[in-house]
Amino acid sequence: MDDLALVLTIGGLAVFAGAVVQGGVGFGMGLVAAPVLTLLDPSVMPGAIQVANLTLPLFTLASEWRRVDWRGLGFAVLGRVPGGLVGGAVVVYISIHHLGLFVGAMVLVAVVLTARAVSLPRNGFTITTAGFLSGVTGTATGIGGPPIALVYQTAKGPQIRATLAMFFFLSAAQSLVILAAVGRLPALALGTGAALLVPMIAGFLVSGPLRRYLDGGKVRAAVLVVAALSALVLIVQTLASS
What we know:
The protein has helices spanning about 5-25, 30-40, 45-65, 70-95, 95-115, 125-140, 145-150, 155-180, 185-195, 195-205, 210-215, 220-240. The chain contains twelve helices and no strands. The longest helix has 25 residues, at about 155-180. The protein is globular, with a radius of gyration of 16 Å. α1 runs parallel beside α10 and α5 (about 95-115) packs antiparallel against α6 (about 125-140). By secondary structure, the chain is mainly alpha-helical.
């Protein structure tokens, strides 16, 4: 099996699984797919996963767009724009080693603290800060969901999914523009991302039962678990690449 076939086969399975998780929880595509694709072919990352990140939210928004928290989204985008620019600089000038370790550790701390408390306060400052961190890590590594998801962990399932979907759509669009501007978006990455849309769509289509199960009062626990796993994956990924 040649390298491209391996990426599309193994990477496709990872994208399928990631789409199932994100379809149910609201985020998690990067958790499952980004490390696998990076190990299979670093040259297509983070561009390939951003193509999927741009497309998957549209399926969520098609049915749940009315539940978007537009005010919170505005604050998140306010932080995400400069965060994405910093992430672009990281891709070009800085090793992601220290960034991955730092952000992964901070997410784990946030998960532990919020698991013991009722919630993080959800206000303009916390949402903007989460948007900034998501912009940095999302652009640099393809894993940008945990910061913004932690802020919304106590919201209802449909609001979490809809708000994060709109945020991720805008985020992926910005990341792709930045990666193209700094010369880190090769045609192979775009082609690979386009090919992976098929398993991504299949994963979303089978995520319905998980979505209904989590909406029965289990969304917050799922957000904390996926955020913690994302942080661990980010730490392991950066250690493996150092």
